[in-house]
Fold each of these.
Amino acid sequence: MTTVEPLEFEKPIVNLERQLAELRDRAADSDLDMSSEMKRIEDKLTRMKSEIYRNLSPWQRVQIARHTQRPFMLDYVEHCFDDYVELHGDRHIGEDEAMPGGFARIEGRRVVVIGHQKGRDTKENLRRNFGSAHPEGYRKALRLMKLAEKFGLPVVTLIDTPGAYPGIGAEERNIAEAIAYNLREMMLLRTPVVAVVIGEGGSGGALGIGVADRVLMMENSYYSVISPEGCAAILWKDRKYATEAAQALKLSAADLLGLGIIDEVVPEPMGGAHHDHVASANNLKSHLLKHLGELESVGTDELLELRYQKYRGFGDFRERGRR
C-alpha cells in the first residue's frame, strides 16, 4: 500500500500513529502487556483525528484538494464507470491530454464523461500540462457534448484544474473565446449535464466545463474565481496571506452549498479522498446515479428553463431588514 504523504497540519496525527506502531512492534517482540498503553494512544488518536478533520479551515481544504495522491479524473472513471472509450482531438488544432473524455457507462446508463486530468510525476504532469487545458481541450469537450446531445446521452464533467493554461500559444489560439463559447453552448445544450468539482476548481478553466443542471463538489475540493495565492497577491500584495484569502473567498463546498452555488456536497473518507480512492469513488458514483436519475425524467424544454432559472438566480442578494 502506498504511504500517504502527510500535510503540515496532519503531522501530529502521524507522530501518534508512529508511536502506536512502535508500541505494537515492541509488544509483538516481547512478552510485555502494553494493551492499556496502546488503548490510551488509540483513543487519543481517534479524538485528534476527529478534532482536526471536523474543523478544517478553507486553506487546509485547498491543501487537501491539491494533494498529489488524491484521485484524479481518470481514477474516478476507472472506479465509477465501465466501457470507457476515449475520443481525441478538437477537429481544429489537435489533441489536448489535459482534458480527456469519451463514452462510458455507469450502472448500465450510457453517458459522455469529460474532465481535467493532472499528473502525479513530472513526466505525466508535462503530458497533462498540470491539468491546465489549452483551447483545444475546451473545443474537444464541447465537441463531445454535442455528440452527447445528438445521441441523447447525459454529460458528466469532472473538474480538477488550477485554471486554463495562460501561455502565449493558448492566447494566440483564443483560450478566452473557447471558454466563453462553451459557457454559451452549455447553457443551451439539450441534454442533462452533471458537473462535479473533484479537486481544484480554478477560475474560467473550471467554469468552461462547469455549466450544468446539477453542480456537485467533493467535500475537500474548492471552487473559486481565483486561487487564494492570487487573491492574496492582489489584495494584500503578498502571497503569504493565502490563508486569509481562502477564508474570504468562500471557496469551500460547505460555503458554496450555503450560498446556493452548488447543489450537493459529496462526502469523502476521513482525512480526504487520497486516503481511500475506492470509498471516494463509491460515494461519487451513488451521487451521480441519484442526480442522473432525477434529471432523466425532466423534459428537454423544462430542463433548459430550469437551467436558465438556476443561473439567473445567482447573485441575488438582499440585505437583512430590507425588501
Amino acid sequence: MVELDFNKGKGLIPAIAQDCNTGEVLMLAYMNQAAFDETLSSGNATYYSRSRQSLWKKGETSGHVQHVKEIRVDCDHDTILLKVEQAGGAACHEGYKSCFFKIVENNEFKIVEKRVFDPKKVYK
C-alpha cells in the first residue's frame, strides 16, 4: 500500500503535472488523500482546490482531462509527479497549454505562448 506524507503540508501535498510525451511541466496543484485515491481509481488527475475547499476533477468543466500514465513520488513521499496525457491540448484555465506561459523579463511578465482555447467560451 502506498503511503504518502500528507502531514507536512497540513493534509495537502504538491502535485506536478508533466506532459508524458514532451516532458513539459503543465501545472502545479495540490492533492489530499481523497484526491490521490480518486486519481488512482479513475486514472484521471483529481486535485484538491484550495480556493473552493473541495475535490477538483481536472477537465470536468472544460473537457481538458489529464489521463495519468505514470505516478512518481519524491524521496520524502510528500510530492507527486504525474506524467499525463493532456486532453484538449491545454492544462491552464487561461487557455494555454501550460500554466507556465509567462517569463520574467526586465522585471515584468511577458507572455511567451499562444492560447489554445478562449476561456470565456469554455467557462461560461
